[in-house]
Amino acid sequence: MRDNTPLIQLKGVGTKTKGYFDKLEIHTVGDLLTTYPRDYDSFEPPVKIGNLSGGEVACVYAAVTGTVSEKKVRNLSVLTLTVSDGTGLLTLTFFNMPFLKKVLKKGGYYCFRGKVSAHGTKASMEQPAYYSYQDYMELTKSLLPVYSLTKGLTNKTFRKLVEQAMMTCVWEEEFYPPAILDTYHLLPEKEAIRRIHFPEDRECLAEARRRLVFDEFFGFFYFLRQNKKLCEGLKNEYCMFETADTVRFLEQLPFPLTKAQKKVWQDIRNDLGSPYCMNRLVQGDVGSGKTIVAVLALMMTAANGYQGALMAPTEVLAVQHFETIRGYVEKYHVPFRPVLLVGSMTAAMKRQAYEQIASGEANLIIGTHALIQERVVYRSLALVVTDEQHRFGVKQREQLSEKGVSPHILVMSATPIPRTLAIILYGDLQVSVIDELPADRLPIKNCVVGTNYRATAYKFLAGQVAQGRQVYVICPQVEEGELDNLENVVDYTEKLRAALPETVAVSYLHGKMRPADKNRIMEQFADGSIDVLVSTTVIEVGINVPNATVMMVENADRFGLAQLHQLRGRVGRGEHQSYCIFVSSQDRKETMERLEILNRSNDGFFIAAEDLRLRGPGDLFGIRQSGEFAFRMGDIYGDSDVLKEACEAVDRLLVSDPDLETEEMQPLKEHLRYIRANNVDFRSI
Ligand code: ADP
Ligand code: MG
Q1: For ligand 1, is residue 290 a contact (CB within 6 Å)?
Q2: Is 506 within the bounds of a domain?
C-alpha cells in the first residue's frame, strides 16, 4: 500500500488533526493504512453483578432500579443511578451527560460496560458505555482496533479515518505473483490490510497478520541475499598479520581472555589474513566481553598501517568506547591515534577530526553513523566494526563502496538467537559466538517485587551507595503519556531525591535530552560523581560502568524479557556482587510468570527460549522483543515458521528469476524498490 495522498485530503482532517498525525509520523493515506492497531478490544458477554471484581473492565445487563438523580458540582453535572440484575446492585456515575436522565428510564434494561471499582460489597462504575442488548451482542462478535495515539487524538477519530481511507485509497496491483500467494496460502494485500484493521474474528486476524508478517520477512530476506551477493567473493584488499604491538597489548591486559574470546579472536585473525574480505558477526551475551575483541581487531588494523572504525548506535556509547580505547592507548603505550566523531561536536572539532582521518594521522576512529557520512574521507579504511544494534546493511556497504572502499566488516551483537534461527537471519555473515562470561563474575542476584516494596528497595540502594557502589533506576518514559500510572523519569527523580539521604547524588537521563547533555551525565556517572542514575531505556545497550551494582526497573511488566535482560546486563560487569530489582506495577499471573523467568536465570538464550514457550503461537501482539530486528509485526521467535517460509520463497525466486525480469514480477520489483527507497531496513545490522 503506497497511496501517498496527503492525509489532509481526508474528510474531517484539518490542520489540528494533521498535527497529531504528524507527531505519529503518519503523513499519507498509505502511512495511515499501514499503521496497524497495537491491540484489539473485544467485548465479552455480560456478567452477573454478583460476580464483578474491582479493577476489571466488564459488562452487565441490568435494569435501572430508581429514578436517576442529578447533582451539580460547580459546573459539572453528576448523574447517579443504581442498576440491578437480581444478583446485586451496581452504582453508575455519569459526568456532564445530563441528557441521560431522559434516556435511561426506571425499569429499562441496558448493557453497561466500564471499569469496575469495588469497595467491600459495593460495586460501581464511572462513565460506563451503555448499549441496547442487541447492539451489545452484535459487538461481542467483533474486535475493535486500538491504535497507538498521541495526546489530543482519540481512538475513535483514528478508526473512522482508517475506515474512510480504506474506501478512498488507490490500491496498486497485488505485488506477489499468484504462484507465491498459492504456495504460501497468503491473503491478497488489500484483504490483509482490511482485516488487520477490522477483523471479523481472531482467526481472520491471524490470517491477515500472517500475510503482513510474511511481507516483512520476504523483504528482509531479499535484501539479505542482495547483501550476500555483494559481499561474497569480495577480495581482501587489506591483508593483515599479527604484529608485535597487538601481541604486547594482549600480554599487558589486566585479565586473560576467556577461552571463547580467544577462539573468536582467532576467527577474526584468520579472516583478516585470508584471501577474502571479512563479513563476520560476533554474538555474545551481555557482559561476555565483546568490546575487547573489537578493540584487538582495530589495533591489528592500525598496526598494519590501515585505519579502523568503530560505530556505535548512540553517542553515549560511542563516547564511552572512545574513552576506553584512549585509556588503553595511553596506559599500554600503543603507538596509535584514536579520534572521536559524533554529531554533538562543534563544527571546528569535527573539521579537525575530518582532517586527521583524511591525512591518516588518526587510525582508530570511533563514532556514530556520522562515520560513514559523505563528509568523511578516509585515507585507508580497512575495517568497520559496528557495535550493538547498529544499522549496517546493504545501504551502508554501498555508501562505503561509493567512497571506493570495501573494508572488512565486523558486527557485534548481544541478541540471543538460537542457532537454527541465527543461520537464516544472519545468512549473509559468518558467525562466531562468545558463549561464556569472564570467570571472575558473581551471578547477579534478582528479585521481582510489587510497588509496595519500594521503601525497602530505596533503603537497599542507599546502603549500596554508602558502600561506594552506583545504581541505575529505569522508568519507561519521560513525560506523562497516554497511559496512566507509568513512572516518568523527571518526576521520579524528584521523588527519589526526597526518599534518599541528601548526600546521595541523583540525576536523570532520557532520550529527549540534547546529546551533549546526555554525554555529560554519562561521564559524571562513569567517573562516580553521580550515585544514582534515573533513566529511560537509552542506557539499554552497551554502557559499561563496572562500579554500578544495582539495576532497579520500574514498571518492569511493560518491557519485553529480552529488553529486561539487556537492561540487567548493565550491572554484574565487575568484581562486586550485583543486584537486579524488577518492580511490577501489576500482579497478574502471566506477568509474574514472565518476570519469574528472569528471576531464575541470567542466561540470555534460556530467557529467549522461555519467553517464546510462555507466549506461545497464539499470542499475536505480545510485548515486542527488543533487539536488532526492527520488524513492525513479525517476531523472529513467535513467527519462526513464517520466517522459514519467506526465506524459502525468496530463495526459490532467486533461482527462477534472480533479477525479477519477467512481466509478472514487475509489481514485486516495484514494491521492493519502494521499501528500499523508504529506508525500510529490517535488520539494524
Ligand atoms: P559486552 O559483551 O556486553 O559488550 P564488554 O565488552 O563491555 O561486554 O565487557 C564487560 C566488562 O568485562 C568490561 O568491563 C571488560 O573490561 C570486562 N572484561 C572483558 N573481557 C574480560 C575477561 N576476559 N576477563 C575479565 N574481564 C573482562
Ligand atoms: Mg558491548
Answers
A1: yes
A2: yes
Mapping DSSP to helix (H, G, I), strand (E, B) and coil, where does residue 321 land? Answer: helix
Joined together, the cell numbers standing for residue 375 give 563528509
Q: Which residues contact 281 (CB under 8 A, 6 or more apart)?
A: 411, 412, 413, 426, 429, 430, 431, 432, 685
200: Cβ contacts below 8 Å, ≥ 6 apart: 141, 142, 143
Please indicate whether residue 402 or residue 56 has the higher confidence score (pLDDT): 56
Burial of 11 from C-beta contacts in 10 A (0-12 / 13-18 / 19+): exposed
pLDDT digits (tens, 9 = 90+) for 518-543: 888 988 999 999 999 999 887 767 68
Q: What pLDDT, on a 0 to 100 scale, did the predictor assign at position 683?
A: 46
Q: Are residues 418 and 281 in the same domain?
A: yes
Please answer whether residues 192 and 166 qualify as being in contact, where contact means their C-beta atoms are separated by less than 8 angstroms.
no
DSSP sequence for 369-404 = GGGGSTT---SSEEEEEEESS---SHHHHHHHHHTT
314 Cα–ligand 2 center, Å:
12
Indicate whether 505 and 385 sit together in one domain: no
**369 and 296 fall within a common domain:** yes
**Which one of 120, 141, 162 terminates a domain?**
141
Distance 401 CA to ligand 1 centre (A): 33
Structural domains in the chain (count): 4
CA–centroid distance, residue 604 to ligand 2 (Å): 14
Q: Indicate the pairing of strand 69-73 with strand 76-84.
A: antiparallel
Residue 667 resides in a domain: no
Q: Is the CB of 261 under 6 A from ligand 1?
A: yes
CA of 283 to the centre of ligand 2 (A): 10
Which ligand ends up closest to the CA of 387? Answer: 2
Shared domain check, 32 and 54:
no
Pocket lining: 393 vs ligand 1, CB cutoff 6 Å? no
What's the rounded Cα separation, in Å, for the pair 111 and 109? 7
> Tens digits of per-residue pLDDT, 537-560?
877 676 889 999 999 999 888 887
